Amino acid sequence: MSPDYFKNMMNQELNKGISTPLGVAIIVLIAILAGGILAWQGGLIEKISTSTPTPTPTPNETADWQTYTNEKYWFEIKYPNNYEVVIENDETGLLLVHFINPQNIYYYNIIVTDKTKTPKFSNFISNPESYEHIKVENYNNVEWDINWWTGGTGVDKNPISAYTTNEKHIFEITLDSQTKAISLERISQRLSTFKFLELDFILPKGMEQWKIGETHTVKINQPVKDFYPFTHLTLNKPNGKEIGIISCKIGGSGEIVFNWDTKTVLNYCGAGLEEKIKEIEPGNYMVAIAKDIEGRPIIATSELFSIISK
After folding, report:
1. How many domains in the chain?
2. Which of 111, 154, 269, 280 gets the most CB atoms within 10 Å of its CB?
3. Which among 75, 140, 145 is positioned nearest to 110, based on CA atoms?
4. First to last CA, the chain
5. Model pTM?
6. Does residue 53 form part of some domain?
7. Smallest Cα–Cα separation from 194: which of 125, 135, 141?
8. Cβ(96)–Cβ(109) under 8 Å?
9. Can you give the pLDDT at residue 276?
């Protein structure tokens, strides 16, 4: 409603004559409303902002931490810049890495255990009944089972432990004695920095052209022996369909370089020669590392490249 509307109403009441207290009250009320609207339009009354304030982002404390990388066991994890890294190994093939700060408190460890051997350093794996299960949490596509030590005295200040597994190893992270709430917060922070290294192809590169019959090199960034012992190197179409096997059982060799004639592939590995070898046709392909089980699930693939006629 505009101020003119209220002005007209007031004039009408004045023309009628102010004969009653009610008429006086109406005129006063109209004057107040008209004055309020004029003040609002003139900016004398502050308009209320409806915009939502931008939340302040939570700083990532681990962003500038150093990274410990272990290429033998295919993982990396971050640690504070003022921490010292101390590594132990024993005859069982187990790895123990200490991350220790200068005051020797609030330290944590990562333990790598062969699934087939008895661990030397792990309380949790040796005595799982002494732990209370807290929760399962996923960080960087790694699922961790987090547990709280209840087997000793002073239950409110005891080690916390989280573990995960792959095909051959158990990975466990333990944290120094603190309260349960602080321990859970700190171990979650550490777990958020843990990653398994990815298997990748160095050769062939994307968009390369290989002529049929010429020897070319297929190269991967690290051996698959320790983690995927039963694998083949296969030739696949861009949609993933397998054409054949380039090299059998690469997981047992520990090699990262494979020479291929770019002409033939195998239908299967093992004894027998009937229809074992077949020639390939020009086209677009990728090389894959596939498990030697039913359905041949793919672990990693190269970029697309072309095989062309001579």
Report:
1. 3
2. 111
3. 75
4. 85
5. 0.62
6. no
7. 141
8. yes
9. 78
Is residue 256 assigned to a domain? yes
Residues 93 and 147 in one domain: yes
Q: Clarify whether residues 192 and 294 are in a common domain.
A: no
226 vs 205, more confident = 205
Beta carbons within 10 angstroms of residue 81's beta carbon: 8
Examine the pLDDT at 169 and tell me if it is beyond 50.
yes
> Are residues 141 and 235 located together in one domain of the fold?
no
What is the C-alpha to C-alpha distance for residues 177 and 151, in angstroms, rounded to an integer? 13
282 vs 127, which has greater pLDDT? 282
pLDDT in tens, 283-310: 999 999 999 888 889 999 999 999 999 8
- 170 and 231 inside one domain: no
Q: What is the CATH number of the domain that holds 296?
A: 2.60.40
* Claim to verify: residue 206 and residue 172 sit in the same structural domain: no
* Closest by CA position to 267, among listed 239, 234, 299: 234
With respect to residue 54, please indicate whether it lies within any of the assigned structural domains.
no
The answer on 266 and 167 residing in a single domain is no
pLDDT at 49: 47
How many CA atoms, within 13 angstroms, populate the side-chain half-sphere of residue 57?
A: 3
When pLDDT is averaged across residues 264-269 and rounded to a whole number, the result is 91
The identity of residue 272, as a single letter, is G
Q: Which domain holds residue 274?
A: 201-308
Residue 111 neighbours by CB under 8 Å, 6+ apart: 94, 95, 96, 97, 119, 121, 122, 170, 171, 172, 173, 174
Classify residue 62 as exposed, middle or buried by CB count within 10 Å of its CB (0-12, 13-18, 19+).
Answer: middle
Examine the domain organization and report whether 104 and 118 are in the same domain: yes
